[in-house]
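Risk mitigation, structural track. In case the binding assays with 1,3-dihydroxyacetonephosphate fail to produce interpretable data, a predicted complex structure has been prepared as a fallback.
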Amino acid sequence: MSLIVGNWKMNLNPHDASVLVHRLNEKIEAKEGTEIVLCAPFIDLYPLSKEINHKKFKLGAQNLHPNDHGAFTGEISGAMLKGLVQYSLVGHSERRAMGETDVFIAKKVAAALRNDITPVLCVGELLDDRHHNLTKKVIVDQLTTNLSQLTAEDISKIVIAYEPVWAIGAGTPATPEQIAPQIRTIRSTVEELYGEEAANVRVIYGASVAGEFVKTIMNIEGVEGLLPGGASLNYEEFAKIVSAVQELD
Ligand code: 13P
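Fallback model:
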C-alpha cells in the first residue's frame, strides 16, 4: 500500500485546479494499493470535492489551525475541513520557516486527528543542520514535540513525511544513502516514544520527487510513499510518478 501526496503549494486558482484534475483523471487509472492525495489550496478544495473521481483521488489540505473555531482572522480549522479532506499536511518546512514552532505544530497534529483528518507531519533538517551533523537530533526533536499530544493508538492514524529541506525544489532528491538513515531514525524514535507497534507508522519521502527517481526512492527500506511538490503541478510528470509507484505496488 503506497501513498502519493501531491503538494500544490500556493498555486492554481479554482479554474486552473479544475483543469489539472481533469487532465489527471484522464491520465491516471486507479489501482488498489496506491492511494493518491491532492493537497490543494483551501479555495480549491470545495469545488474539487464536487469534481474529482473519489475512487481515484483523495483531497488534502496544506495546513490547518490548532483551534476548531474562534477569532482567528484568515485561518481555516480542522473542524471546517472535516468531511471535505481526508488528509492535511502539518508542519511543512515552508511553514516552519514562517515561524511555526514545534509546540504549535503538535497542536495542529492533534487538531487534525480530532477532526478525522490524517495529518501528514513533515520533518527534516536544513542544510546547515546537516553540515553540523545535527540531522538526527533535529528529526528526533521535531518528532518528540510534534507527536507529544498523541497516544500510542493515534500513531497508526498519522503519516510522517521525511523532507530534507535542502533538497526541496533542488531538482535532485537526496540519495538513498542520505534518506535511509533518517527513515530509520523516524521509526526508531516513534518506537521509543510509543512502543513497538508504533514503528509501523506510515513514512513517506518528499523533496524533488519526479518520475525518474521513483524506483530508487521507493526501494529504500521503510519508504512507503512520496510527497512531490513541483512535479504534482505537471499532470504528465505526476501521472508518471503514479504509474511508476503502481508498477511497484
Ligand atoms: P518539490 O517536489 O518541489 O521539491 O517540493 C517538495 C515539497 O516541499 C513537498 O511538500
